[in-house]
Design goal:
The structure holds two protein chains of two kinds. Chain A has two domains: 172 residues, no CATH class; 203 residues, no CATH class. The longest helix of chain A has 44 residues. In chain A, a hairpin with a 6-residue loop joins strand 8 and strand 9. The two termini of chain A are 26 Å apart. Chain A is built from ten helices and 14 strands. In chain B, strand 3 and strand 4 form a beta hairpin. Chain B is an alpha+beta fold. Classes of the chains: A alpha+beta, B alpha+beta. At the A-B interface, helix 2, strand 13 and helix 7 of A face helix 2 and helix 10 of B.
């Protein structure tokens, strides 16, 4: 089929052609970027934390009338209270392991610092690597379900305790593989010495875990998401957090039993509705904005596509109606039904093609503009290609019904009045 | 005449029910999405204290060391959080009409009633002028004096919802309340008060929207009793047991000036203060800033990016819906060439035809507006059931209600101009001949 007569025909409907092409271009630009945003949100939400997330929950509590953590005497008393809680939790039926911790991945409550290969660095020294600390004890790996890939886990002998505002040396540390590789690209991290938070006291890396995300999910944590450090130290303060791993299927029962049990150990504490949280809840809370945004964008994309398809159907239907007589003449002159069908399909492909080219440019422009205003990366070519194919297919699908109607116009109508 | 156009429009729209429904639906969806996101955006970027937001200023200084300093490019860090010493110096200098220093804390409240368990509340540690400066209204009693703060008196102001919870809403002035293991005497109870956004809490570690704080304590007393601020940053290894004297920032200063025009004078004072501190060797950077409430919130990027993105998306959506409507109206009007020809031949002027088509578009716009309103209510209802901080505040107000219709009619008139123009430019003779 020759394109020339088709283009000549389209010239007579400039406004309509421009409108369909424009609509397709805008739809492509917006849907491409929206789907890219949805994709990056989903990718963010689905990345594994490194924890074994099932059968895990967190208890956050605060004592009332507790001794001060700023005196040596107070720290010892607080540590006794904490060990009492730990022992009681570990004895609870259905509990597999319990570890004290200052935070968990996705909790957005972090203790961050930096580790360096050099001692006595000043804050802001560029040689340090940013990290988030988990202060915990010898049950950390089994409680969190972390996978050790080199060295050894903490043992009871490694574990110390300190007032939470004190800053004693940290002789033994476990780091994530990402952090180990960053500090020791040759892979000799285990047994090596690093210095944490500008300290002059050496810390030895005794083990490496495969993966452990930092607590922060905000953008400020983006450049050290996988650089976590485990410190075998119980922090003593007037508040504590305990990570609890239950036996499979006993999560709910143990979670219900925890509050009354802790009140029995010591009634002078604050344990409110938020105090006992399953890891699933922590995850849902951390990512609810991302999930909400993805759903909203998805719905809007669907409606947009539907509106555009409806617009194409509507406009093409009118064209078919308008050209009733021409179609009749062509049929009378020997065009087959298939020729008429193909004519309208090709015409739509032409318009949608022009719209898609314009749309690709718009999509890239929109993406570049979004990058200047929001945290966003460059739109991958794949999204643009898939988007282009999708709008072309959408156009073909939308045009099919009116085109079929056109192909059914009988040759006799050429002889009748329009 | 208008009545006649109206009649024609209704008949014409009735002839193509599916098409009309499609146009109205698309327009309604676009407008609904726009109004929903705009309502949220307006809510989130609103003026929290309109009566004096132009007279409230947030002094900021830069306490960072000389290392890494680039003259003219550095800005006060951490959103203007200030070291305690400088905040107190500004407070004592008293150069503004009113000034207050503040930080947020987590207050552990122990009810006296048996059987009630202790709970956490949001607390504000501040100085005496806080309440008057921010127009916080009292239900009972009043705030404390600067002297109470200096002498570390254990006095407290509580919010009405805490008063309802602990004292069943009666006048609790004079009662003692146990906060973080110390007894405080209640001197005042606030009326419901929570400016939105909670501008004074932004950057101090508090939530930006939603409920107000529950307890207000003198800063010096609360710090002496060991209450920790929610947001602390240190620029050197610091002893965080003694924040007041450490190289750390954790408080905000707000000042109220008698007139917005006095800002220049106060900024000069602030600049001189920084120079003076440089002379004593405490500071190394002369940059200061003095944003007012609205600029402070813009700098702090209080409105979440996602909300802006949603509003942008909604406008893109409306744009496509309008383009769609233009296309459909155009197609519709081209099919009616014959009708237009007849009308023109019978003496209708171009202007008449144009007006007739515009009335038809406006009618679609009105219908789209009504539908958009329904969608907007639905959207806001959905947002109210989201777990966001600002969820409960998402309601359609009268201005937005009116705006909906203006947007709807404007969008549809815009969509109608091209088809109406094409219609009125048709020459009648060929149309009549063709039939």
């Amino acid at each position: 089929m020759k394109l020339h007569p088709m283009i000549a025909a389209l010239r007579r409907h400039k406004a309509g052609v421009v409108l369909i092409a424009l609509q397709i271009a805008l739809t492509l630009a917006i849907v491409c970027n929206a789907i890219f945003i949805i994709g990056s949100r989903i990718e963010r939400v689905n990345r594994p934390t490194g924890l074994d997330e099932s059968n895990l929950f967190l208890v956050t509590q605060q004592w009332v009338g507790a001794p001060s953590a700023d005196t040596a005497d107070g720290v010892e008393k607080l540590d006794v209270m904490q060990r009492e809680d730990l022992a009681a939790l570990r004895n609870l039926p259905g509990v597999e392991a319990v570890a004290p911790t200052n935070s968990l991945p996705l909790l957005n409550s972090s203790w961050t610092g930096s580790v360096s290969l050099k001692p006595d660095t000043r804050p802001g020294d560029k040689s340090g690597t940013r990290t988030a600390y988990y202060f915990t004890d010898e049950q950390a790996l089994s409680t969190m379900g972390l996978k050790l890939v080199a060295g050894r886990a903490f043992n009871a002998g490694d574990v110390r305790h300190q007032g939470f505002r004190d800053n004693p040396p940290r002789p033994a540390l476990i780091v994530t593989k990402a952090l180990a590789d960053k500090l020791f690209p040759k892979g000799n991290a285990v047994g090596s010495v690093i210095y944490s938070d500008g300290s002059g006291a050496p810390s030895t890396i005794i083990g490496v875990v495969e993966r452990l995300q930092i607590p922060a999910t905000g953008s400020w944590g983006n450049n050290f998401t996988w650089y976590s450090t485990l410190v075998p130290t119980r922090l003593d303060a007037n508040f504590t957090r305990y990570a609890v791993r239950t036996k499979p299927g006993q999560l709910d029962a143990v979670m219900r039993a925890v509050t009354p049990m802790l009140y029995k150990v010591d009634p002078m504490r604050v344990l409110d509705d938020d105090s006992v949280k399953s890891f699933a809840d922590i995850r849902a809370k951390a990512y609810r904005a991302d999930v909400g945004m993805a759903i909203l964008m998805g719905v809007i994309c669907l409606i947009l596509i539907a509106v555009t398809a409806a617009g194409i159907v509507g406009l093409t239907s009118f064209w078919v109606g308008q050209r009733h007589r021409q179609i009749g003449v062509r049929r009378a002159l020997g065009a087959r039904k298939l020729d008429i069908l193909h004519y309208f399909q090709l015409e739509n492909l032409l318009i949608a093609g022009v719209g898609a080219v314009l749309g690709v440019l718009l999509a890239i422009g929109l993406n570049l503009w979004l990058i200047t205003r929001y945290e966003m990366s460059h739109l991958p070519v794949l999204y643009v290609l898939v988007g282009t194919v999708a709008v072309l297919v959408l156009g073909q699908a939308a045009v099919f019904v009116p085109a079929r109607r056109a192909s059914n116009v009988s040759p006799v109508s050429a002889t009748r009045a329009a | 005449m208008f009545g006649y156009y109206f009649h024609l429009a209704v008949r014409s729209l009735g002839r193509n029910r599916v098409l009309t429904a499609l146009m109205v639906l698309a327009l309604g969806l676009g407008i609904g999405a726009c109004i929903t996101t705009l309502t949220v955006l307006k809510l989130l970027s609103g003026d929290p204290i309109p009566q004096k937001s132009a007279r409230l200023f947030h002094p900021e200084v830069d306490p960072l060391p000389a290392q890494g300093y680039v003259p003219g490019q550095s800005k006060p860090p951490w959103g203007g959080l200030m070291p305690y010493a400088d905040a107190m110096n500004l407070l004592h200098a008293g150069k503004a009409e009113r000034q207050a220093v503040m930080a947020l804390t987590q207050a552990k409240v122990e009810p006296r009633q048996l059987g009630q368990k202790p709970f956490f509340s949001d607390g504000v540690m501040t100085t005496a002028a806080f309440f008057q400066m921010f127009d916080a209204p009292f239900k009972y009693g009043s705030g404390w004096s600067e002297g109470d703060g200096e002498s570390r008196a254990r006095v407290a102001v509580i919010a009405d919802f805490l008063n309802d919870k602990l004292y069943a809403g009666r006048n609790s002035v004079g009662e003692t309340i146990r906060i973080n293991d110390h007894d405080y005497r209640i001197v005042g109870v606030l009326k419901p008060w929570s400016p939105q956004p909670r501008f004074y809490a932004v950057g101090l570690g508090g939530h930006s929207y939603g409920n107000g704080d529950a307890v207000y304590l003198p800063l010096q007393s609360a710090r002496a009793d060991g209450m920790d601020p929610q947001n602390v940053s240190c620029w050197e290894a610091a002893d965080i047991k003694h924040l007041e004297t450490s190289p750390c920032v954790f408080v905000y200063v707000w000042v109220e000036l008698a007139d917005a025009a006095d800002a220049g004078a106060y900024e000069t004072f602030l600049s001189n203060y920084a120079q003076q501190q440089i002379a004593t060797g405490r500071f190394h950077r002369p940059e200061v800033a003095l944003p007012d409430v609205m600029r402070f919130m813009r700098d702090a990027q209080v409105v979440p990016d996602d909300v802006r993105l949603q509003a942008g998306l909604a406008f893109g959506f409306l744009l496509i819906c309008v383009v769609n409507t233009v296309g459909l109206l155009l197609a519709k009007c081209l099919r009616r060439s014959r009708e237009i020809g007849v009308r023109r031949a019978l003496g209708a002027t171009r202007r008449t035809i144009f007006a007739q088509f515009m009335v038809e578009s406006a009618l679609i716009g009105l219908a789209g507006g009504v539908l958009g309103l329904v969608f907007a209510e639905l959207g806001l209802w959905a947002i109210r059931h989201q777990p966001a901080q600002y969820a409960a505040l998402a309601r359609l107000d009268l201005a937005m209600f009116a705006f909906t219709f203006v947007v709807a009619v404007l969008a549809s008139l815009l969509a109608g101009v091209l088809p109406a123009w094409r219609a009125c430019m048709l020459t009648p003779a060929p149309q009549l001949k063709a039939s």
